[in-house]
């Protein structure tokens, strides 16, 4: 992550984020990195003056904005535009954040986005770790390197991945989302409706209107995003992951996972192990 626990206050909502400075005053630096290793960290709502890419080489990162939640396993990274209030949750992870001055990357400043981290992207992120964002002087190699990387990021941003879930301030829909996420293995629309004290018909209509997707779509996406994070654990079998997120058999899970990610669970796990070894 980008800040220590001491530098972020517990802002209550995205409406009252804290600005967290990363560069010294009048810094000549236009881009840099911030590595972070932690077992349990919640940043609180905050913003940066710089564009950020959060990449986890181990573990998974969760980033929440006012409109969505993004879970980024090792094969993904999340783009956080400058000035966007966000709350980052880190659990047993090793991350590297890239930061770019607003002038280096134009556009794509409306919302967070999930990017697939191809091997060349991963290596460039890790190589850039030699230039911390809080350094006090600039050098020609760093300028050239981050300018090139910024150009590539603009291209990668055109092909974002749909690995996010909506959030809502509607109390019924928000409660339905929480219950669903907490009971992925057993959630049904009937059980959720009982839990949030509305009829099934009301739940379906209200959820689709507020969240922009049906409850069934939300359940499926939440299951698969959770599965992506669980597959990063080499101690878990594909079958156990499928069962934990609510699939009755490995075949149905494999088809759904492949449709969503473009890779089979086994191939995804193999790629993920390569990221851990980086």
Automatic annotation (TrEMBL):
Transmembrane segments: none annotated. This is Helix-turn-helix domain-containing protein. InterPro entries: AraC-bd (IPR003313), Homeodomain-like_sf (IPR009057), HTH-like (IPR037923), HTH_AraC (IPR018060), HTH_AraC-typ_CS (IPR018062), RmlC-like_jellyroll (IPR014710), Tscrpt_reg_AraC-type_HTH (IPR020449). One of its GO terms (molecular function) is DNA-binding transcription factor activity. Keywords: DNA-binding, Transcription, Transcription regulation. It comes from Actinomadura physcomitrii. Residues 174-271 form the HTH araC/xylS-type domain. The keyword Transcription applies. SUPFAM superfamilies: Homeodomain-like (SSF46689), Regulatory protein AraC (SSF51215). SMART domains: HTH_ARAC.
């Amino acid at each position: 992550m980008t800040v220590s626990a001491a530098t972020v206050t517990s802002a209550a909502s995205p409406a009252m984020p804290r600005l967290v400075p990363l560069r010294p005053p009048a810094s000549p630096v236009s881009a840099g990195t911030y590595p972070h290793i932690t077992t349990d960290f919640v940043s609180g709502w905050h913003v940066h003056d710089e564009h950020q890419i959060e990449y986890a080489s181990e573990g998974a990162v969760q980033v929440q904005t006012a409109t969505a939640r993004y879970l980024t396993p090792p094969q993904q990274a999340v783009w956080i535009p400058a000035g966007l209030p966000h709350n980052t949750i880190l659990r047993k992870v090793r991350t590297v954040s890239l930061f770019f001055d607003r002038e280096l990357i134009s556009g794509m400043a409306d919302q967070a986005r999930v990017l697939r981290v191809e091997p060349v992207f991963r290596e460039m992120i890790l190589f850039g770790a030699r230039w911390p964002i809080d350094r006090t002087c600039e050098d020609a190699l760093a300028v050239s390197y981050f300018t090139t990387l910024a150009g590539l990021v603009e291209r990668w941003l055109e092909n974002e991945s749909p690995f996010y879930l909506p959030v809502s301030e509607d109390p019924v829909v928000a409660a339905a989302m929480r219950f669903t996420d907490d009971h992925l293995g057993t959630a049904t629309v009937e059980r959720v409706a009982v839990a949030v004290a509305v009829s099934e018909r009301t739940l379906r209509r209200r959820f689709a209107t507020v969240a922009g997707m049906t409850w069934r779509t939300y359940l499926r996406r939440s299951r698969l995003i959770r599965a992506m994070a669980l597959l990063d654990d080499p101690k878990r079998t594909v079958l156990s992951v499928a069962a934990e997120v609510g699939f009755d058999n490995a075949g149905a899970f494999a088809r759904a996972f492949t449709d969503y990610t473009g890779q089979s669970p086994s191939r995804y796990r193999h790629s993920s192990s390569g990221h851990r070894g980086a």
